[in-house]
Amino acid sequence: MASQFGEQLRVSIFGESHGNGIGALIEGLPAGEAIDFDRLMRFMERRQGGRNALSTARKEPDRPEFVSGVLDGITTGFPVCIQIANTNTRSGDYNNLALKPRPSHADFTAYMKWHGHADMRGGGHFSGRLTAPLCAAGGIALQILERRGIYVGAHLSSIGSVQDDAFPMQPESVLFEQIAAKEFPVLSDKKGAMMQQEILAAREALDSVGGTIACMITGMPAGLGDPMFDGIENRLARVLFGIPAVKGVEFGDGFALSGMRGSAANDPFGTDLQGNIVTKTNRNGGILGGITTGMPVRFRVGIKPTPSIAQKQQTVTLPEGNETEIEIKGRHDPCIAQRAVPVVEAAAALTALDVLLCDGRF
Amino acid sequence: MASQFGEQLRVSIFGESHGNGIGALIEGLPAGEAIDFDRLMRFMERRQGGRNALSTARKEPDRPEFVSGVLDGITTGFPVCIQIANTNTRSGDYNNLALKPRPSHADFTAYMKWHGHADMRGGGHFSGRLTAPLCAAGGIALQILERRGIYVGAHLSSIGSVQDDAFPMQPESVLFEQIAAKEFPVLSDKKGAMMQQEILAAREALDSVGGTIACMITGMPAGLGDPMFDGIENRLARVLFGIPAVKGVEFGDGFALSGMRGSAANDPFGTDLQGNIVTKTNRNGGILGGITTGMPVRFRVGIKPTPSIAQKQQTVTLPEGNETEIEIKGRHDPCIAQRAVPVVEAAAALTALDVLLCDGRF
Amino acid sequence: MASQFGEQLRVSIFGESHGNGIGALIEGLPAGEAIDFDRLMRFMERRQGGRNALSTARKEPDRPEFVSGVLDGITTGFPVCIQIANTNTRSGDYNNLALKPRPSHADFTAYMKWHGHADMRGGGHFSGRLTAPLCAAGGIALQILERRGIYVGAHLSSIGSVQDDAFPMQPESVLFEQIAAKEFPVLSDKKGAMMQQEILAAREALDSVGGTIACMITGMPAGLGDPMFDGIENRLARVLFGIPAVKGVEFGDGFALSGMRGSAANDPFGTDLQGNIVTKTNRNGGILGGITTGMPVRFRVGIKPTPSIAQKQQTVTLPEGNETEIEIKGRHDPCIAQRAVPVVEAAAALTALDVLLCDGRF
Amino acid sequence: MASQFGEQLRVSIFGESHGNGIGALIEGLPAGEAIDFDRLMRFMERRQGGRNALSTARKEPDRPEFVSGVLDGITTGFPVCIQIANTNTRSGDYNNLALKPRPSHADFTAYMKWHGHADMRGGGHFSGRLTAPLCAAGGIALQILERRGIYVGAHLSSIGSVQDDAFPMQPESVLFEQIAAKEFPVLSDKKGAMMQQEILAAREALDSVGGTIACMITGMPAGLGDPMFDGIENRLARVLFGIPAVKGVEFGDGFALSGMRGSAANDPFGTDLQGNIVTKTNRNGGILGGITTGMPVRFRVGIKPTPSIAQKQQTVTLPEGNETEIEIKGRHDPCIAQRAVPVVEAAAALTALDVLLCDGRF
Hints:
4 copies of one chain form a homotetramer. With 362 residues, the first copy, chain A, is an alpha+beta fold.
């Protein structure tokens, strides 16, 4: 329901952009897992704005506080509640939006669903800020997975019309680390520079721009996942569409497969140098029938342009429905895809860990 | 878990391609709903092969039998169990596949997950045949929705590289009926003829071809769905990725939004002639923050080419992992996208009905 | 929801007393488990009436048919659908009840919930007959558990005011077999004879009588279950209250503990001859904090007298609510506790297997 | 899973007795509901110790802080996170227990489940202290229910062998208020005085004593709940067994029905002075087939004596399993049943509200 996902690892997200705080409640984390807090902070910093001209103005770092479930840096097996304080909120900027829904934001739909009671200051519970606790939870999952040889990495595969290079078929974890260490998470820094130009150009035009993110999970053994509605694809998609602004999800070559013939789209089976069964290509993204093949799980998400733009836009008053205009003030990223990269990794890590737990691998 | 989805309306699919039978168990259907059995049969016939050269050889019609939950054609409120007999199975065709996994099928992953115990004759529980009970359940949901002014329609939006025209922004239900009545479910029969050429060409080349399906749900009131992980997008995606061969799902303009600027991607609010609040465009597919805007819900799925092709393919023996080749015999559709159109409608209808029930609209 | 329970092992019950059939859908059964069909039939026969003067007239044996999920007597890992035909239904007997709800049956509440649409002939979905598919599912679980050294047994601990002897603290599985083989499932046949007198006396008085059932699960390792709301007690209670006529559930010494002092109620820890940690007594029923101690899980359920009695009773007409009388005809057990013994075992076995699967023990 | 319950209203409890804090996350609360904070505090005070010689030494009041989901004292529709600080913890008292499990506590089972990682200081996540956030959540539910004419009340029905009087069949809400206002929540103050003697006697004997609690929910309309495994009984039982020390749950006359005949146990239907259909007696506790009859829902829970007693007890060392003795120091209630009364009310209110939400009554 709503702000929760997962089966054996259950993650619930709470809080609003301008409320007292935000956080995550995680049930089902295995006991005895050490949490490297510094690494977790570095992971979370990747989703924060303020690093450069591409993002909103500098914010204080989001510092997750463990309310429960962790003792001396080790998970206890009890539910882990993580809380992050809301500081640096400037509600004044949003006051005039109260009754004028911002186009392509959730203001209008939230108003209709909760009859005006929802606290939508700064986007409320729908704010991109709510991806911070998701990253906190995901950052812990990443550490647990890595101890089992499972790695997650993502990069900006496109901004506007500029495409990054593609991941190799079997990337090493060091590649994921290299990308994660970059200020702009791409494979090709040359393409990255062009992407940044797209973002800056949009910003200058008082506009925003969208992008796509490609993600891989390596090291997942074959035979994980469930048929039909609980396959790896179903579970990942359910979580990924929970990230604000995601409007498309595809696995392997995804929509491109729809334009192909079977002889080109099928992944032949064979063996690698160690005699393991592999597929010679991985157009299906490491998943067949919802179940892992042992090849890297591979998917891509499409992220729409930031709906908050500085240009004047058409809207209506609520609840009357009189046509009017709106000018959105305040701090906004001209492109959110950049900051969504670690969020996608977090979603992937939490889903992968849940799948492993459902399979009884702990 | 696995072969089940839904919250207040819960659908479970069971059976295997060559087992004793297949079926669906539906919990949570409202009581007192009449089921027009003839209409249900007509809906189910749309997903069956054998109509023309584009599909596999003629089969007997799938006839759903109501084991429980329906009395004199009216739902009683108790769980509805629907069963469909398996006739016309020719297991011999598949015997040689037992230990040679077919590329891009679930044979290998099922073997790894269930250690060789899964009954994979004809694809087992992963077979496209299992979409028959999904359609039976969905066909009932469609009838219940229509009584509330909610309509679901889909068309083949592309086959290979050939694109159909697009749905209008606010289609009438009669358009959905017209497409459903066609042997080849497209808007433009001219484009449809070209698509059929693509399919026949693939067939002649002992190959297959993929396609995409566009679907709309009209009449959904604004304010339905839940934030984050239980929005309309999350729920629909979870079910849609349960349809065999679906590798991508996008909402509204989907991945195309990723290449756009915010000023072009945002949907301005305004009012229609009756004074209702609407969006002037619907690039977000009738969903903002996971919640309905009142505009048609609009999405597209990408379907990979049928993995069963008559060409020789590389594979391995199980469990040894020796490289070998496979030639798949038996009856296969050169394109399954055509038959998946009503399946997508069924998935959409069941999800929409569940969302309405969760909202307490019955 | 409703007619389903379980987390990793999910059991759904469907059907009505006088409908086309009844059955169970089981998701999550481990693959590769042999089902001894003859043993399953013997288990199911224990819940059937017609053996003696204590039960309703002879019926045909309920024969479960496997629609899916089982190949050559071995589970495949796919959902298992079990169906049992409804034969020997005599709806005429119930015709006059249609609009006169039987006291202490679900006729009235079903009418209110489903506005008269529920098919309540013979009790509909609430009929004791629906425990047949529960036993079919449970009988399979029992066989899987026994292969892991886990055994489930129950006996009639009381009928009316007559009490059976108590289980020993650590019963051998052979004791469970001995009781299961008896026509009247008690430890002390002498007490059993007195209980049967209670039942016959009730029958002669055109009345019915209630009873209690004590059940144990042996061989469960320590450390299984979850805190708070998903402990062994919570899960068992949720399923046990799904058995018709169960009105009380207690664990260990249960309500008797409420009248005791801590020094008498606490179970001291110690070691057995093999050096394993045990409790010297087992007043807590093998569960502390919802988690198994390694001692036998022990509980008792209270079953009310069969509400169907031949005496004239006060009721009302529906929907008018005019006061009237009712005389219930047809075949009815003067005591259902006897037949509920294997049903309680089935519920216990399914819950125990689910707990093991959640713990990743397969 | 674990520390969560509910379907449309989902409550998760987190925290440990001696950790940073405890709390509850509530998803699905209707929007627009005012929370009377002072009333909530008064409700929560009823479960706190320190009022008299019967309880542990005085503690600071538990003050729930709303982290999310409430704006200006009104629910917003977003997840409500409530946090309560842990103050006044004296871990030193428990140090010697670390490796010696206390009899009839969860120390041993938690050790086995989480391999020694669980933070069991003060009972950890199993501590009775964790009923504080349950009461915070339940206190909100009570306020929402009362606005719909639904009331919940409970009393101590017994301590040791002393019984309180019974609730009338149709109690007015003012009776619930009167009991709630008492320092010792009983109907008969004379019986209450005798109960208090039982508690004091146990305390003087360095011992503890158990009790039972009777609870009613009035005003629930007929037709609510689901058949089989999601009836009112199933749901309530699942939550009630989540309250520490509860070992038995019964509905209506419960286990007493097992000793009765049907003619005495059945509740005849009739009409009241307003012409509404009622049952003339309510031995089934307002529930038939899991669904409400419209009569008060009535149940009783059995609570074992506080396992913490000052007497020397037998235990073992962990993980070696050497037999040894333990003396439990620190502050302990000689009877916890008294403080569990509002906890039972909270569990009942949250379950009732969930059932109403599932039925679409909001």
